[in-house]
């Protein structure tokens, strides 16, 4: 199995949706994620400084809430990541008797008691705080909440929509902007009849009975009064101007919350008042002991004329060595076994239930073969982090994490090998660590495994922000120098031949390109 197959196999094991989705307007109310790359949401100390921006869209049944929410997503365009979170996902779990009533259309789904408001608020609070959450999945065919959940993470903007989105005080405290879609009652009834007959195959008599029995009383008693909490009242039709104003406000808020510090990470000594000692000992970097064999491997890998076949072979050897060296940071407990000679042997056994790897695409993939050779059957996930063509800031495009990380109660005890070919500016590694912490992984359970670390690069910023993680590498290079990456038209380059980047010296070049191309 080659490295690309390993990554694919790791993705199958994660069973986790990517961060990036294309916008697709569907007839069903569905949670959607739209991404054009998530910029940093944290500062140099590693702490979160920006929450996701939360917009609530409420209104009567068939008033046009879902349409307004989706139009906002469309109009936002290049906003990094947008989630539509529907109230319909949070119906309470029903007893067998309630399920039977629901199938007879005798269950009131429009009353506030039908919604699990505490769970709704809890999931929304996690998403707003940039943490992962697992929202329930409700089946309208079975009229029951299913055992499965839907994993969500990485939103810059969250749009919650539902008839009761503005009713609960705990939910209202989480909103940054509250919108109420106001529509004529006759128009809402006409839309409801048209929708239910066409999309749900229902009869008009049943629709009217349900409307008069449940929908209209709920609107009069709970939905319409919640409009008093709205910041903006949007008409249920001909609302393009209102949507444009909402989107302009959201964009302005995101610009004000933006954070940029990659240049400070690249050459921290130029920006830190007290740079401090950057020796491996001071930075607590575990460096693979130097041997003639290791020097020979690096001589081959650093040579620009090395063939791709030899480069891949020796990268795989090096990844095996550095992964074996990193195993010292896993927990072990005493264990006694009986040898084939019937003699007891007192040794050690691994004391960790969940161990996984998360590679930073694509250069982190160069470590996968070695990791698989050392830790058999380890589940692998991945993070796609790329640099913005104009600013050079890291952008998170895709999250595919193992199940033990996606489920927070397991993430707290999981051990994660974070894999990247080198720590230069450290911007991608910094972002990856922050993602793992957002999922509940403990700092001291993160083992950053890499080939090279730049002594004068961003590793000092990573170590200062996350003092408890382990960093294991095969060698430490001394310098980072500014340069231009060809093939990009970036800002600040008078000749327009590339984008500013920071190059590790002596380094190994673009490890991902040399390994895969």
Automatic annotation (TrEMBL):
Pathway: Pyrimidine metabolism; CTP biosynthesis via salvage pathway; CTP from cytidine: step 1/3; Pyrimidine metabolism; UMP biosynthesis via salvage pathway; UMP from uridine: step 1/1. Residues 54-237 form the Phosphoribulokinase/uridine kinase domain. Keywords: ATP-binding, Kinase, Nucleotide-binding, Transferase. Its EC number is 2.7.1.48. It catalyses: cytidine + ATP = CMP + ADP + H(+); uridine + ATP = UMP + ADP + H(+). Transmembrane segments: none annotated. One of its GO terms (biological process) is UMP salvage. Residues 289-482 form the Phosphoribosyltransferase domain. One of its GO terms (molecular function) is uridine kinase activity. It is an enzyme of class 2 (transferase). PANTHER family: URIDINE KINASE. Belongs to the uridine kinase family. This is Uridine kinase. It comes from Pleurotus ostreatus. The gene is URK1.
